[in-house]
Amino acid sequence: MNTLEDPILTTTAAARLLGVATSTVQMWMESGAIASWKTPGGHRRTRISAIRELMESAPGQPSATVGQAVEAALSPVSPAEFKPHPAPGYPAGRDEAARLVALASSGLIDTPPEARFDRIARLAAQVTGSPIALVSLLTSTRQWFKARVGLGAQETPREWAFCSHAILAEAAFVVEDATTDPRFRDNPLVQGEPRIRFYAGVPVRDRAGQPLGTLCVIDREPRKLRAAELQALVDLADIASEEAGKR
Description:
Elements: E1 8-10, H1 11-18, H2 22-31, E2 37-38, E3 44-47, H3 48-57, H4 66-73, H5 96-106, H6 115-128, E4 132-138, E5 142-149, E6 155-157, H7 163-166, E7 173-175, H8 188-191, E8 198-205, E9 211-219, H9 227-244
Helix pairs in contact: 1-2, 4-5, 6-9
């Protein structure tokens, strides 16, 4: 492609197209998020095709920004984790693409345990009297646990995740007896270990309101939560959301 069809842009021109500061574009070029080169005078240049590709990689929802697309591109996790499946084997919202970009930009997937999230999971188990509590994050292929109490597994396939339903809820999503619920009774996590019967999950969101995953509690016996227990779970999920937004 020649220069007329794909003009060369300065960092300032690229910044204007992207709606960010010139210094931000310079940083993205240096990191490799935007394909670029240096002139003999040491100035960065790129082509408009590189900027268009970046802008198209940010889905059209307002909460998926170009900055998030850049952070997603820099994620050490496989890009396939953050691409929506054409026909997923689980429920997905219309803004799933934007949600996955937000999750990638959070930088939380596959990170070491952190006391701030471990503490939230422990408190969720204690205040609800549940043997299992999780801070669960949902990529397109995995349910990965940032924090977990009472469960040895670090992750499960996304298709098995009760949390796929919970992130679509505005508040708490509760299943009192999974064996009687047609959505879950044949689930491998119900038929096999940990033999889920009760589940309650509340979305954990980023600053823009995108659900990255959930704070959830699980029991091996059918049950209900008292109003105070449910409110405590919601409050802890709000704290987890605040923590997720700090990265």
